Amino acid sequence: MIQENVSLKAHNTFGLDVKAKRFATFNSINELKSLLSENQSSELFILGGGSNVLLTQDVSALVLKNELRGIEITSDSDDVTLVKAMAGEVWHDFVMFAVEQGLGGIENLSLIPGSVGAAPMQNIGAYGTEIKDVFHSLEALKISTGEIEVFNADQCNFGYRESVFKRAMKGEYVIVSMTLRLSRNSKINTSYGAIEARLSEMNVTAPTIKDVSDAVIHIRQTKLPDPKEIGNSGSFFKNPVISKKQFEELKSKFPDVANYPVDEDHIKIAAGWLIDQAGWKGKTLGTYGVHKNQALVLVNYGGSQGKDIYQLSEDIMANVKEIYGIELEREVNVI
Ligand code: EPU
User: Fold this and answer.
1) Which of 67, 89, 107, 331 is catalytic?
2) Which residues contact 311 (CB under 8 A, 6 or more apart)?
């Protein structure tokens, strides 16, 4: 059933109070199909957990909220267990299902806000793991035909916070489920310094999947704001990748710049470091600002407008460009 003039405040993790002219939820593929066939001429906006959007205005498109639920093991062996989750599941619930079953592969991605469907859309990643590392396949409904199509990892064309669904095929598909390749014998990845440090604080010497998940949850809770308390969408910007030559010039002026090698010719720079050193960390403009513990995260303390947060992001980008000569790119989708 389509509702009119619905507030999207509870449906985006920034907590921005904009209205959808028309709004409906679907909890079965058949329901989705009939909504699509009854509204063929409407512009659509498919919403999952709302964890990666900045809503700067009321939405005139028909908003369809994905509430497809269900998680199941579809194939199990000693080395590989395939687990299928419907796209409307909460991502962290999926991680907890895997951890409780002793299935490794996504424990480093604990507590990332958002839905299962959004995870492949932008190849979510944290603490040395990305979705693409454990991806098996996904099912997506092609809006123009109403048919379900299966995509493997190559067809998703994953990149750093990127996939074909965010770019070349934007708006063409509704992701309905994702299957991951997990394992009861997976290798734990504690290469990210903060995880090692937390495990040693926990006095853990032979970490289990659950220990790594607990460590990640602790790190995120201390460094990142909980969207239930302070509106935010995680990293607002991507970490920029620059050429080695540009990096050498940058380093001569800013010897401490936080960076990670990407390949022989490219270096990833910590955008949080750039923004922090430019003096923005903790800056508050009334009801919104830059988070006090992580400069990459913009926050809404309540009652802010998306367009003000957008303007803040523009000011930060201009300032970073002026100081370091680096163009930041937003990770969130601006609507
Ligand atoms: N840093 C600062 N000041 C800050 C923030 C960071 O100096 O305010 C420095 C840190 O000291 C560190 C470096 O920058 O040397 C990197 O910081 P951090 O480990 O917090 O990670 P990040 O690069 O800022 C990325 C992801 C996060 C992910 C973490 C952990 C992006 C855009 N962000 O952040 O992902 O959780 O690594 O793997 O790639 C997200 O995408 O929403 C997200 C939260």
Assistant:
1) 331
2) none
Q: Is the CB of 278 under 6 A from ligand 1?
A: no
Q: Stretch 56-84: mean pLDDT, rounded?
A: 96
Q: How far apart are CA 175 and CA 311, in angstroms?
A: 31
Q: To which residue do tokens 């991806």 refer?
A: 135
State the pLDDT at residue 27. Answer: 95
What's the pTM value of the predicted model, to 2 decimals? Answer: 0.94
Closest CA to 86 of 102, 101, 72: 72
Indicate if 220 belongs to the active site: no
Summarised one tens digit per residue, pLDDT across range 198-243 is 999 999 999 999 999 999 999 999 999 999 999 999 999 999 999 9
b/e per residue, 169-179, with b = 16+ CB within 10 A? beeebbbbbbb
Catalytic pick among 161, 181, 198, 220 = 161
Residue positions counted in the chain: 335
**Structural domains in the chain plus CATH codes:** 3-66 (3.30.43.10), 71-182 (3.30.465.10), 231-334 (3.90.78.10)
Give the atom of ligand 1 at the shortest distance from the alpha carbon of 294: 8
Question: 295: Cβ below 6 Å to ligand 1?
Answer: yes
Ligand 1 mutation target, pool 111, 254, 256, 296, most atoms within 8 A of CB: 296
**331 flagged as catalytic:** yes
